[in-house]
Amino acid sequence: MVDEVPVDPGTGRIYAEGWQSWSPATWHPIGAGGRRPAEEWEQLMRFRPGTPVAATGVQGEGLLVVDPGGGEPARCYASADPVAVPTVHAAVTGDRVEVRSTGPVDVRAVPEGAEAALEAFGDGLGVAGLAAPPTVWCTWYRYFEDVTAADVRENLAAISARDLQVDVVQVDDGWSPGLGEGLAEGETFGSLAALVDDVRAAGRRAGLWLAPFLVGAETTLAREHPEWLTGPAGRNWGQDLRGLDLTRPAVQELLAGHVRRLVGLGIDYLKLDFLYAGAVPGPRHVDVDPVVAYRDGLALVREAAGPDVYLVGCGAPLLPSVGLVDAMRVSPDTFHEGGEDGSTGLRGLMPLAARAWQQGRLWVNDPDCVVARPSYSQRDRWSEAARTLGGLRSFSDRVEELDARGLETVRTLLADGGTAQPLPRGRVHDAARLAQAELAT
Q1: Are residues 148 and 112 in the same domain?
Q2: How far is CA 409 from CA 239, 391, 413, 427, in A?
Q3: Assuming Cys at both sites, which of 124, 229, 297, 391 could form a disulfide with 246, CB separation 3.0 to 4.6 Å?
Q4: Which listed residue (81, 289, 296, 333) is catalytic?
Q5: pLDDT for 321-337, tens place per residue?
Q6: Whether 333 is catalytic
Q7: Does residue 325 sit in helix, strand or coil?
Q8: Domain end among 124, 150, 185
């Protein structure tokens, strides 16, 4: 046992950090349990692969804070080493919280409170000089995998015609069958190089989606090089997924070459998705911890892209990514299939609010895209949350389908250009209360 803390069951609370972007993260009332995966694929794709979630108590990955309540100092349990990410567990026994960890953690008492404890932890990681984020239009929530270069050109023209303050025009998933097929353009997409030239000629920056550490089990790469694969990484695109062995020289050469090729086309904004696949358990060419392999692989991508390319992590192990990305998705997707009308609520609000303290400290927080078209019932609430709790401003609509209210929503979202600065303490405090309230919904 690492610690035992007397708590006030009525006012105490516990913050537990999740493993990756899509993992639950929030403040829990004393005695409440954390969220757990309902199916095996969720353990792989939303929680920490190979680390079951305890049946009781609250579990964090690398970071947990106990606020005892009653004005007593908060206690922070964390690892400052990005490749040493122990699982930290808090369980309530009577009026005490017992804290255990699978590895060493620093224990710090912070009289200024729980939010101050998180801010101090973030400040202590020493990330400095975060670049101001660009504003972004993204294809995903309107075109999904059916996107074409013609769709992008239509919106590029509409953005200019309406004088929207968009810096980056970003093509999301759908432009290519993926790394397992050599990152070639899809049959119906068109020429990526020609599209990038058109985006840049219009005075915008070109952005692109990649899943660099993941391949489908049925792809050409997987069939020809099974030794390049590690363990299971879930399922998507109609097939099982596998992680890449980032310790293998041939894989490193492949990744670096693809990144340099894309940057050479003029792309200077990369959304790196499904990054958790680089850290799944499994055999590797070099016998290192999966977290070490992941961080080394992300460092390779960072070096290959160069310092001027803006990198956004997504589905990424959080603490092992610190210092290697400019922005980080801190929430799951705005919606999945069936939620296009907003009827399933705001999936990302709880972790976005809980992770407000990370903004401007670990990276620029990416809340995911605002959807501002009339058919999305959550557009007002989500745009307000994204604008006040995040740092990166992005939206994902066919511009021609926006009504007057939608256009005004987008203009307001983009007006300040986003921020790389930390949020005010009062806003972080209010966000923590919002996150805890969302836990009950």
Answers
A1: no
A2: 38, 16, 6, 21
A3: 297
A4: 333
A5: 999 999 999 999 999 99
A6: yes
A7: coil
A8: 124
Question: Quick one: the chain helix, strand, coil %, rounded to 5?
Answer: 35, 20, 45
Give the count of domains, the chain: 2
Phi, psi of 41 (to 5 degrees): -65, -30
Mean pLDDT calculated for residue range 21-34: 96
Active-site residue 289, yes or no? no
User: Are both 75 and 110 inside the same structural domain?
Assistant: yes
Domain that holds residue 65: 3-124
Share of the chain above pLDDT 70, in %: 100
Do 213 and 292 have their domain in common?
yes
Number of neighbours of residue 125 by Cβ within 10 angstroms: 15
d(CA 431, CA 438): 10
Residues 153 and 119 in one domain: no
| 255 residue type, one letter | L
Inter-residue contact 259 to 304 (CB < 8 Å): yes
Provide the pLDDT confidence category of residue 128 given band limits of 50, 70 and 90: confident
Whole-number pLDDT of residue 314: 99
* 94 shares its domain with 206: no
pLDDT at 84 over 90: yes
Give pLDDT tens digits for 241-267: 999 999 999 999 999 999 999 999 999
Of these residues, 273, 326, 368, 397, which one is catalytic? Answer: 273
Phi first, then psi, for residue 160 (nearest 5°) are -70, -40
Question: Do 65 and 26 share a structural domain?
Answer: yes
CATH of the domain at 191: 3.20.20.70
Q: Please, what's the b/e burial string for 315-344 (b: 16 or more CB within 10 A of its CB; e: otherwise)?
A: bbbbbbbbbbbbbbbbbbbbbeeebbebee
Which of these three, 105, 124, 143, is where a domain ends?
124
- Same domain assignment for residues 189 and 290: yes
**Residues 433, 311 share a domain:** yes
